[in-house]
Design goal:
Length: 311
Amino acid sequence: MLETQESENQPHRRQRKQTVVWTRYYRCHRATIREQNDNNNSEDEEEELYDDDEIKTHPVQKKTKQAKCLASLKVTCYMDDINNVVISYLHEHSGHTPRSIEDVQFLPKSDKLNERILEELRKGYNVRSVREYLQCEYDSLPITNRDSYVNTVDVYNIFYKYREERCAKDTVDFASDQFSFGFSAPWQKELLLSTAGKFISSDATHDVSQYSDGVMYTMVIRHPIVGRGIPVAYLITNNLSSTPLVGWFYSLASLGLTPQRITIDHDFAEDNALTTVWPGCTTQHYVWHVQRAWMINIKSKVVASVGRTTG
């Protein structure tokens, strides 16, 4: 009895608190990072998503991965044992099922898959073809692997960045007062160099850019299957002489283009350029432009004489 009383009277020794070197907290990848507005976008947000031509100005976005999950880990390193850490599991997962198909799709793709997507896009394939091809290639992976799910949004977002990089203006672009830029898509080039490219229509559209005297020349051929006109090559320039046209035609000729007949809109610059590059090509003019030229000259040069009448 005495021993017990003495032990109770002894002062309580406080346990020495361990010195913490560092502490890290890790939240579930589907935790709510910020408050989300469940309502539709405001008018200001809509204006940011679309430009003046009602065209989206940002990549397609996936639905939010935030599921208000409270699961988190606390990782602590103590001075007594700096080579090891203590992991504390704070909360259970909520709002989603870990490792499920719906959950895995929100994990980031591997760098290898991103490189494969970019590799296929550089070959000229469209978004759908790339997605279908890579889905078959990665279909053998386990369902818990993020790369086993290749969706259209994954491919499109990489395509969007790839297209922006290719279309970005170089630092020396338009450095001078005059410029010219010709371009054509791979499928357009294939049609242009086919037998359908023997007969071409060319048209000039003025005031197509912010640059003074901007003009866009468009080459159009008859599609061999549809039977309708389809554009196959473009040239944008602010030089109204035949110089950019000669360079454009020579570049197309180097690819193997040898047209038999080209229809143009009675432009002297085009006439001179065609004669220089393809002297054996037949040139004809649009009927509308010919009639318009006739009427302008008739009104300005032909004056009807008024006969004198006698009684």
